[in-house]
């Protein structure tokens, strides 16, 4: 009780204990929802009124993955609505240069801190679930590393006082996950058109939010625009600055890796003339893009995908090389 009552004050390491409580709560919620809701819905989606008596390995795997997607969709959709309601009440959400203004004396309130602990708890839970609960996919090691880095990043940014930019980063990432899990659930339900629509939204949001806005606005703000505000505080957090930005760049590497898989999935659909193909990650989940275009159009689309990906990397490297540290005081911290 004392911990909860003191939670509204400045960040402390003891506050992270609340994230552990959230993690345990997520494990319990997952178990209850799985038993009472998701399994019944999955049976109805996959088999309808007639349930097969013999469940082979493929059907069992499909059933488990369906319940996993339902759980993730529930979480990501709920937490995305929550963070949007929080950011709507702020004056700095749409101005990246204000993310570090007034650091470290930024008043962010209890709702945002609870949101932080909730997200940290979810990724702590996800580490355990990935090891003991969820289906292992081909990118297991990448996903495991992602969950660890994200958990550390959330906790570290909380203790460092980088609340504002951290909250926006979480909001950007969850948006793509909502579309992805919605596409999976639609596919399991046999709604091909909805699955194609959600997957298109997922691919577009991933590219725009994680490969455009994240590096060119978020990372640029964290590595460049933040310097003046941090120097003005009188105690530049040298270690926090470098550790935080290194972790953001590591996340960007993961984003590029997964974007490569997304492009490969899209290209495979183009090459299959719109026929259902395999998900490169799991070897099971099938995305379907209903395309009715000529071979010449498909070849042109393939060229555009590859050209834009190369152009993105070029622009990002050029942007990094053009960054100059304007404050000479920075050299002495």
TrEMBL record:
Keywords: Membrane, Transmembrane, Transmembrane helix. InterPro entries: Lag1/Lac1-like, TLC-dom. One of its GO terms (cellular component) is endoplasmic reticulum membrane. GO terms for biological process: ceramide biosynthetic process. This is TLC domain-containing protein. The keyword Ion transport does not apply. The chain crosses the membrane at residues 16-37, 114-133, 140-159, 195-219, 239-259, 305-323. PROSITE patterns: TLC. PANTHER family: LD18904P, LONGEVITY ASSURANCE FACTOR 1 LAG1. It holds the Pfam family TRAM_LAG1_CLN8. One of its GO terms (molecular function) is sphingosine N-acyltransferase activity. The lineage of its organism: Eukaryota, Viridiplantae, Streptophyta, Embryophyta, Tracheophyta.
């Amino acid at each position: 009780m004392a911990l909860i009552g003191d939670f509204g004050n400045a960040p402390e390491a003891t506050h992270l204990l609340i994230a552990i409580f959230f993690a345990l709560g997520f494990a319990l919620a997952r178990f209850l929802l799985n038993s009472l809701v998701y399994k019944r819905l999955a049976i109805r989606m996959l088999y309808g009124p007639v349930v097969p008596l013999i469940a082979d390995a493929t059907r069992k795997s499909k059933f488990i993955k369906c319940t996993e997607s339902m759980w993730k969709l529930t979480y990501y959709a709920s937490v995305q609505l929550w963070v949007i309601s929080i950011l709507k009440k702020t004056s700095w959400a749409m101005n990246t240069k204000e993310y570090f203004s007034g650091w470290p004396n930024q008043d962010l309130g209890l709702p945002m801190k609870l949101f932080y602990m909730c997200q940290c708890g979810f990724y702590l839970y996800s580490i355990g679930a990935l090891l003991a609960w969820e289906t292992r996919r081909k990118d297991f090691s990448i996903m495991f590393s992602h969950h660890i880095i994200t958990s550390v990043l959330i906790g570290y940014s909380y203790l460092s006082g980088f609340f504002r930019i951290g909250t926006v980063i979480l909001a950007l990432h969850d948006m793509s996950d909502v579309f992805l899990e919605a596409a999976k659930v639609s596919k399991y339900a046999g709604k091909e058109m909805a699955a194609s629509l959600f997957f298109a939204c997922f691919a577009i949001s991933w590219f725009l939010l994680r490969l455009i806005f994240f590096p060119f606005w978020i990372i640029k703000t964290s590595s460049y625009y933040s310097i003046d505000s941090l120097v003005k505080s009188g105690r530049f957090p040298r270690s926090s600055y470098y550790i935080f930005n290194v972790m953001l760049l590591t996340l960007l590497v993961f984003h590029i890796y997964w974007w490569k898989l997304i492009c490969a999935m899209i290209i495979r659909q183009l090459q299959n003339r719109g026929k259902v193909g395999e998900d490169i990650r799991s070897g099971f989940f099938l995305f379907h893009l209903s395309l009715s275009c000529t071979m010449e159009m498909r070849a042109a689309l393939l060229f555009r995908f590859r050209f834009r990906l190369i152009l993105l990397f070029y622009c990002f490297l050029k942007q990094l090389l053009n960054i100059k540290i304007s404050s000479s005081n920075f050299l002495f911290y």
